[in-house]
Amino acid sequence: MKVGYFQTHPEFGEVQRNLEQAASRLGSVDCDLLVLPEFAFTGYQFVNQEEVLELSEPVPDGPTTQACLELARHHRMHVVAGLPEKAGEQCYNSAIVVGPSGFLGCYRKTHLFCEETLFFNPGDSGFRVWDIGPARIGVMICFDWYYPESARTLALQGAEIVCHPSNLVLPHCPDAMVTRSLENRVFSITANRIGQEARGGKPPLTFIGNSEVVSPQGHILSRASVDAPELTVVEIDVDQARNKSINPYNELLKDRRPGYYRS
Amino acid sequence: MKVGYFQTHPEFGEVQRNLEQAASRLGSVDCDLLVLPEFAFTGYQFVNQEEVLELSEPVPDGPTTQACLELARHHRMHVVAGLPEKAGEQCYNSAIVVGPSGFLGCYRKTHLFCEETLFFNPGDSGFRVWDIGPARIGVMICFDWYYPESARTLALQGAEIVCHPSNLVLPHCPDAMVTRSLENRVFSITANRIGQEARGGKPPLTFIGNSEVVSPQGHILSRASVDAPELTVVEIDVDQARNKSINPYNELLKDRRPGYYRS
Predict the structure, then answer these.
(1) Residue A173 annotated among the catalytic residues of the structure
(2) Best mutation site among A149, A153, A154 for testing chain B: the one with the most B CBs within 10 Å?
(3) Taking CB atoms and an 8 Å limit, are B175 and A172 in contact across chains?
(4) What ipTM goes with this model?
(5) H-helix or E-strand containing A232?
(6) C-alpha closest to that of B1 among B87, B77, B53, B114
């Protein structure tokens, strides 16, 4: 199975242009599952609720989901991409899952980060897993990584690949995703963006790139640079994520002892 | 507060000699909390149940706990150290917590690793936290690190320092403990051993050293070598572990959303 990340550099607010550039950059990509960043086509640093409402879109009827559906059909691949979602008057930091056969679903970010808490509702979808044929995939968004419960909940639901659209500004996540992959024996695909935003007099945000694919054994199969757009596809053997045996005496998930865990 | 690890190289089965060498090596150490490895004075690679029964000790009446109590009194410090515990005919992979005022308690390893499952009972103490005055400390043993629930359960019970006696043979733990400290905003002290054991025709085990103290911000305050005994003490500010604020909008533990987690 071929999986990849598309590390982008969107221009804030220019959704249509960002969508067109992404479509163009994808060229003749050969991939089964492609992950794009959080807020992949809008940019990140909203300065007020009006901006959020203006750039948020209904799912799946909005232009971003429709454009991703077109990419998925054209390239015969599944796509996971982040966008601000509008549901009535509520806004969510969401990620859509689409494939050649159509729209599969949407995840709403459970753990909002920093000023996102001002503009978005805490996600109410819960962590979800989709069977896309060659693999079962789960989705978490950016800061969700900080809470080990996120990837764990996906793994317990059978996720073999954790798709992780991100707009990372803190330095820890790329290395921590090695731990997330290892402790759940899953592949993880973190798609981050690059560039800087400093809007409305706010302190600048520098996005750290370093998108990556990590194996269930904690090997970094590919890691992108910190400052360039990058489209990378790697071949993985999903069976590695189905084998939860650590050694002849330890089975990762069976050896959990939830009676002793506090939740 | 001064905390440290004592990275040792015990000789298998020579408990009395290992205890004496440790006491001698401690010299005039100035420390408030010292963590020693898993099975700190027995060695690790048991080849049959008889050996385990022979080297396991009642707690707190056995010689290892008594020797550690003497160290704690003499140096006016708290000590966390691993030992094989015998309770009736049951054996546990345990760690004791002792201080100048006496025996505080014992933790029995929740997640047994590899052949430990042949010789030891799965721990039934649960994860425990002790208030030792300058800090609240929790204990987990070696492979417990692999399960994020271990450190999380300790943090949710108020642990500010995770004491982590270990006999690590896999390469991932030292870096993963950065994630464990970060995701719980706690200090962690991993005390590992060095050297190799190849007993009874079994494949050799090489212990990876790399004992370390990690801060709640994920900084490695000290990391030992892979192949030398080492006694290291560092000064920490425990208040850092009491401040769970990640930024003005995010409080680490309050922002958990257990309703969406699977346990």
Answers:
(1) no
(2) A149
(3) no
(4) 0.96
(5) strand A230-235
(6) B77
